[in-house]
Amino acid sequence: MPETDLDELGIPIIAVPVSSSERKRRAIEEAAVAEFVREGYAGASVDSIATRAKVSKPTVYKHFGNKERLFLAVIGGYLRTGYTGLAPLAARITEAPDPRAALVEYLDAWVRIVLREDIMTLRRLVIGEVERFPQLGAVWAEINSHNDADLTTALTTLTERGVLDVPDPRPAVRQLIAMTVGAAQLIRTFRPSYEFADGELENLVSSGVDVFLSHYRAAGRPPGR
């Protein structure tokens, strides 16, 4: 079994063996995600992952050590790469002439990421396995914390400029996310086949932003300014 380091959340950091093929490693990762999503941690086997990846079982062990480390590495890594692209949108909130439109754009992008079928499936998987693997819950919390921090920074800047009046940005961020991202995510978490009607998702986000701004807009500021 290869020696591995753990990151601050206990997720294995596994170096690619010098003699291994990057193509084989990628095949193992993709096969593992597919098997874990379909069968859960307990139901998925290293044999089935190796078969799907078209590699030998020893090759899987060579790259990842054991089933537990494979699960943590591929699921944790997949979650961390699933939310790329949000930071630039968060930065635009303070630069845009219309903060409302920028907030709607940012939260709409966030909602569409969390509603992706792969992300929703992994969310359900993590919920089911979080007691066995609390590290994955910590990864999810870390992702949310980074996204929250970007939005907190934006709201703080807008407050300093007199556009908003948000005395305590951190709980305000949670309120805004709950009315937009969280509301949509909750629906799809427990109703996987639910299809949002035309305009329903956009209205959920925009109305949540409007409720938020109606409470936190600085005195004397017109809507959207």
UniProtKB/TrEMBL annotation:
Ranges where the HTH tetR-type domain occurs: 22-82
DNA-binding residues (ranges): 45-64
SUPFAM superfamilies from the UniProt entry: Homeodomain-like, Tetracyclin repressor-like, C-terminal domain
InterPro entries the record matches: DNA-bd_HTH_TetR-type_CS, Homeodomain-like_sf, HTH-type_TetR-like_transc_reg, HTH_TetR, Tet_transcr_reg_TetR-rel_C_sf, TetR_C_Proteobacteria
Entry annotated with the keyword Lipid metabolism: no
One Pfam family of this chain: TetR_C_7
Record's keyword terms, sorted: DNA-binding
Name of the molecule in the record: TetR/AcrR family transcriptional regulator
